[in-house]
Amino acid sequence: MEHTKSYVDTHKDRFISELLSILKIPSVSADPAFSQDMENMAEAVKNALLQAGCEQVEICETQGYPIVYGEKIIDPALPTVLVYGHYDVQPPDPLDLWDSPPFEPQIKPTGLHPEGAIFARGASDDKGQFYMHVKALELMIQNNSLPCNLKFMIEGEEEVGSESLSAFVKENREKLSNDIILISDTGMIANDVPSITTGLRGLSYVEVEVTGPNRDLHSGLYGGAVANPINILTKMIANLHDENNRISIPGFYDKVAELSTEERAEMAKAPFDLGEYKAALDIDAVYGEDGYTTNERNAIRPTLDVNGIWGGYIGEGAKTVIASKAYAKISMRLVPDQDWNEITELFTRHFEALAPDGVRVKVTPHHGGQAYVTPINHPGYQAASKAYEATFGKPPVPQRGGGSIPIVSLFEAELQSKTILMGFGLDSDAIHSPNEHFGIWNYLKGIETIPYFYKYFTELVG
Amino acid sequence: MEHTKSYVDTHKDRFISELLSILKIPSVSADPAFSQDMENMAEAVKNALLQAGCEQVEICETQGYPIVYGEKIIDPALPTVLVYGHYDVQPPDPLDLWDSPPFEPQIKPTGLHPEGAIFARGASDDKGQFYMHVKALELMIQNNSLPCNLKFMIEGEEEVGSESLSAFVKENREKLSNDIILISDTGMIANDVPSITTGLRGLSYVEVEVTGPNRDLHSGLYGGAVANPINILTKMIANLHDENNRISIPGFYDKVAELSTEERAEMAKAPFDLGEYKAALDIDAVYGEDGYTTNERNAIRPTLDVNGIWGGYIGEGAKTVIASKAYAKISMRLVPDQDWNEITELFTRHFEALAPDGVRVKVTPHHGGQAYVTPINHPGYQAASKAYEATFGKPPVPQRGGGSIPIVSLFEAELQSKTILMGFGLDSDAIHSPNEHFGIWNYLKGIETIPYFYKYFTELVG
């Protein structure tokens, strides 16, 4: 398949400029202010699929933002692969920490990306990664090398819980039927250490509100005499972990699947340098659950993090006030076999129980999803492994990911198919952070590798 | 002094409309956006003093906002009273909790103010209360009843620490020399239970910053493996109180002046209904240091309250981020004989010590002031007591206030004179809160009472 590499080389400048153009659209799903940009982005995805050679391309309206669907069926007898991706992005704030505007893509070399990286919100998560699949389709059609049927489903609510998607999947099982699902929305260890994510953590995301007095109070007149909602909230959050940094919610660990010593030893083989890790984050020490390594803490262990907190006076200068309300956004990463609905309930019950007299507490579940694991003996994994070997010259390392793609377990439940997570970004690409970027080399390598997956998968199951 | 009451009755409509006009100026000292309004407000104060009959009125420039000074010297041999007040106000946020715009004064009756109250930011704190003195001067000049010399010093930085004022006082000891200082910036128990604040709490106000990783991180990729600055901050703040709600900063209570059983018994005589207190705040329980009553907790005991906290994603929807930084504004109310500089140091040392490896902590002192007490046998208090008796028909109850007016102790140190805190507002007037208001009855009663203070004070010390 030499033509694959040569096609990428011939068209790489256009592949890059096409990606830059969709990165300019601020498709932030969390903020209604960007709803028009979301519509524009769905339009852009539709056109990109048509241009690549998809058929039956449609913008499917939902309760929320539309899902873009397209397919290329060459022979119903052949295997069918469903490609999933999302065109929405995380909010770009804090804006002042970006070196260049988040929606004005810039190409700059970095230490890990000497050939240059594209800096923009969504460059890696997930516009750059789903667009690799669009270009891979174009490549196979132009080269007459598409070996199987393809379906594309690109949604616009991944960063806010994929609510409309679940309904869409349940209502379109037939249309979406497939033999394997392919997603590029994860990372790999390094450009010379390809890896495939075989497990994902689940998620439970909640918002909490603590209400004390019915109005803001003067801290001189009332200070010390009434429960201060902010002080109480900090106490309640602090109580969610014990002295060993284990989560203290009763029942939280009951269903956690513990890995065997062998599995942990296997995981420990993945290259990891704690010194580099700390240096990259500019921290003097790591921090987490006693008895587990850093790689275990962020992959096979559940966690609880406050993602946002606010209350009282946060403007310039000083205001001596006791706020009436304090708020926090809290997310828990879950592992097999924790059930996110059950965990959300356990959290809610425990958090309400933590509230002392003098305050009222409200817990609002935002969204969640189940953890997921792909066995490495699955033909989908085998095909992916051979594809990487063909383009990277070495097989990928199977890796448990710390992130969550809740819909992966939804797919398994509704469509009865496994998902292969072929991610080409790096953990250091700052997704969800200021200065998110995606390596040019990674982008092109992805476009080059994906066609091999189709080839080997069709050979294995066809 | 019958003419006093009749003058107030004759001119009350004008007294009210004049106050409304200065309440329309958004003189928020904490926010630079309002600097022009601050200048306009200083102008308005200058004109009000001139109109009332002050001489040598000047707008004294400072490093910060100007101080308005004016005087009426009738005979150097007579006693001199220095009236202090402030023309700046607290920030009005949260705006959405105001029933009417904070800088568009409205007059509405309330349960405690059947004759109507003026709703506006600064209505009570402190525009309404310092303006009573301006009108009392006008009254005495028009009636030829001014018995002593008067000096006015109205500043614009009380709500942000009175930094420029301290310098001004130190540089103008001669100009500001006086026999007693009069301030109306406190409250009284009830319209039928007049009281005078004989003690104030000190204050130490700090801002803390906790820094973890050098950038915001994806909570899936890093969650559980690095110290989350928000989780750490909540833990550190929670650790500032022990299980008895005592402040756990080493040495914090060392210099606290404990009241005798007799003094506490005397305090306990002030009318107080816990049921009404809780109902007014819509709370099911009070909360505070074990072993003390509500009135003791907010007057004779030191406290620590978080006035604001922020970090991470606080916008709409959900963002799975681990913030690089988390912040809080924290204030401590102090009692005799705690030294605010020493307490600020103790806090800083302790807070830094609470920080675990993996984060860096910065503590920035904002401002502070010492606690203060006026003995009730002081001629200034005696004169005030007789003045209240003349207009309220009963002597005032001496009361320890929970608030802080740091400059009161500065005055004592620099000008060697005591301060009398003749406040006419009510604790329920919501100062520093949405819907701040000041009773019309209280405003007029203040204007009527103040002249009696000058009369009796001159008789006692003249």
Automatic annotation (TrEMBL), chains A, B:
Alphabetical keyword list: Hydrolase, Metal-binding, Protease
Annotated Gene3D superfamilies: 3.30.70.360, Zn peptidases
Single GO molecular function: peptidase activity
Biological processes per GO annotation: proteolysis
Annotated source species: Poritiphilus flavus
Pfam family membership, one: Peptidase_M20
Protein name (database record): Dipeptidase
Superkingdom, natural source: Bacteria
Span of domain Peptidase M20 dimerisation: 199-358
NCBIfam families referenced in this protein's UniProt entry, alphabetically: PRK07907.1, PRK08201.1, PRK09104.1
